[in-house]
Batch of 4 targets.
Target 1
Amino acid sequence: MQIIKDGKIVQDDWRHIADDESLPTGRFTVSFARWQAEGDILKSAGGEIGLRIRGEDAVETIAGDLNHFTLICIDFPTMADGRGFSLARLLRERYGFHEEIRARGDFIRDQMFFLSRVGVNAFECPPEQSLEALLPALQEFTIKYQAAVDEKEPLYRRR
C-alpha cells in the first residue's frame, strides 16, 4: 500500500492488527485499548510498534510510553470529527513526540493542509482516492497567519 509521507508518495509496510490477532514480526500498530491492556507484553515483543488512537482516547495516560512508538496513527471515524487535530497538536507540542503521526480514515483533501499544520506528517487514504490528486493539497496555501506546529510565530510577529 502507498501513503503520503513528508510530502511524498511512499510505500508503506506497517500492518494494523486487530485486538484479538497474534503479534506479527516487523512493523505493526495496535489499538489504544490493546496497548493499555497488554503494554508490558508489547514492549518486549520486538519489532517496531505503532499506536492507533481515536478522538476519545486519553493520550495523557500513555504520555510516558511515547518513546516506544515510531508511529502514532490517528483514526478519523468521520470527516466532522475534529478531535484528531487536537490530538496531533498535543502529541507534538505538549508531549514532544517527533516520530510519524499519520491521519487515517475519513478526512478530506481540504483538511490535509491544516492537519499538516498541527503535526500530521503522513496520510493513509482509502484505496479509491488518488494520492497524486491529494498531494498538492499540502502546498495550496503559501502564507500562514496563525502560529502552529509548523510555524511558531504568527504572521504579525514575523514582519
Target 2
Amino acid sequence: MKVSVLAVGKPRGGLESVIREFEVRAAHYWKLDIEEVGSGSGRRSSQDLKAVQAKEGKRLLARVPKGSEMWALTREGSEISSVALAEALAGKALQGVRGITFLVGGAFGLSPQVLERADRRMSLSPMTLPHELARLVLTEQLYRAGTILRNEPYHKGSS
C-alpha cells in the first residue's frame, strides 16, 4: 500500500533535517511519497484566511492520488494512539486499499472543502501545532507504525 503525505509548504530551519530523516526511515516500511504544495498566502500575510485555505485546499485536492483514502490532519479530528495507527494502516493494506494520503495544511489549517472530502479526520494533538511540527510528528509516527508492525524495538510504549 502506498502512503502519501501531501503538505502545504516546505520545511525550513532546524526541523527540515529531522523531518527528512524520518521520511527516509518511514520509507523503509511504506511505499512513501512526499509532496509539497505552495502556500496560498504568497508573500502578503494580510490575505483573507478563507481565501488562503481555499487556494491551498485546491492544490492539495488536485494532488491526491486516484483511489487513495484521504486522512486529514486537524486538531478537531479523532485522536489515535501509535499502536492504533499501525493497526489501522495494516488493516487498510489487508482490505486492499490502494493508498492512504495524509493531508497537512498550512499556517491556517485545512480548508472546509478538504475536510468535507476527507475519509478520516485525525488529530495528532488537541493543541494547535505549527504545520512543520505536525509534519514531523506524522512522519515519526509513520516510522513508528512500521516498527510496531514488524515488532522492532523502536516503540517502547504499550499503546
Target 3
Amino acid sequence: MRNLADRLRCDASYVTGLADALEERGLAERRCHPTDRRVKMIALTTEGVAARERVLEALSEPPASFGVLTASEQHQLRDLLRKVADADPDLARSRARPH
C-alpha cells in the first residue's frame, strides 16, 4: 500500500481510507506480503475485478455527445489532446510506466 501511495503521490493515510472503503464494499481485501508479514498489500476480490472491468469498458466508450463531431473533428480532438498530454511531464511519465 505504501508503493501505491507513492505512485499516486498522496499520503499513505489516504490510501488506507480508500482501502477501507473498497473493503467495506467487498471490492478489495488486505493481504500480508508473502515474504514480509509486516507489509500489507491490497488485492481486488472477484467482485472488485468485475467492477474494474465494467469501469474500463465504460471508459473505453466515448460520451454520446462526441457524435456531434465529424470523424475528422474527432481525429483532430484526439491529436490535440495527445499534444497537450505530451507537453505535461507528469502525464508523459505516467504514460511511459507499465501498468
Target 4
Amino acid sequence: MKSSISNSPAYRAARERAVFSHRHDRGVLRVEGGDRLSWLNGLLTNDVRALEGGGACYAAWLTPQGRMITDAFVVETGTEALLDVPAPLAASLAGRLDQLIFTEDVRVRDASADVAVVEVGGPEAGAAWETARQGLAGLLAERRVERPLPGLAVYIPRAQLAGLLESLAHAGAVPLDDETADVIRVEAGIPRFLVDMGEDTIPLEARLEDAISYTKGCYVGQEIIVRIRDRAQGRVARRLVRLRIDAPDAPAAGQPVRLDGKTVGTLTSAVWSPQANAPIGLAMLHRDAAAPGTRVTLEDGAVATVES
C-alpha cells in the first residue's frame, strides 16, 4: 500500500491538478414543500433556515440523548432541499423522516436511484468543472467543498452521470479511486459516519463543531449539546484524534488502543500517508488519552502518538 499510494497518479493529481469521483457512498433525499426549511430546522443541528433562496450547510440529526442518527449536507435549491447522506442509510432515513411529518407542507423521498453525487477537487477543480459542465442540461445543485480537497460537489440526474464523468476526464481531471480518496480524507482528519463515528457518537466527540449552530432555535438533542458547552466547558468523555503510527505500513482499523495496558478506545481508520511519509489514523479515545503527544499502543503492538 505504501508504494502504490506514494506513486499514485490520482494522489498527485489531487494535490497538484484536479480529480473527480462518483460518490457512490452517498445517497440523496429530496425534501419538498413550502415548510421544508422550518421543518428541517427543528430537526437538524445547524441553521437550515438561513439557506432560504439557496445555499448549503453541514448538519447532524440527533436523538433526544444527543447521539447521532446521521450527518448530512443540506443543499437548498430554492425549490427543494437535497439531503446528502450515507448511502446505506438513505432509505431508512427517508422513512423515519416521513413519520415526523404531521400538518407541515413537507414531502420526503429517497432519490438515490435517480440522483448522483459527483465531487471535483484539487487546485484546478474549478477550471475542470467549468469545461466539463458545458452541455450538461440537468444540473440540480452544486455545493462548495473546502475539505479534504478544495472544489465542489454537484448533484445531477443519474442518467447524465456517465457523460459528466467522461467530460471531466476530457477536461484533464483524473479519476479518484476509493483507496486514494480515503487516504486524503484521513490526512485531513475528516471522520466518516459509520466508520469513525456512529449512532453512539455525540457530534462534539467527533469534532463536528461546523455542523452546529448555537444561535438558531430548538432542535432535537439541543439540550445535551448546550449542556456540554455550558456546564462541561466543552469537555466530552472521549474525543476523535489523529494518530501517527510507528509501523512499516498501515495497521488494521477496528483494533483496540491502549494506554498503560488499559483499553482507551478504538482505531477507526488507518492509511499510509504520503504527506506524513508514515502510517496515520483516526481513533476515538477516552479524553485522558486524547492530549497531543500522548503515546498509546495498538493491539497489534504498534506504538502511536496523538497528534491532534
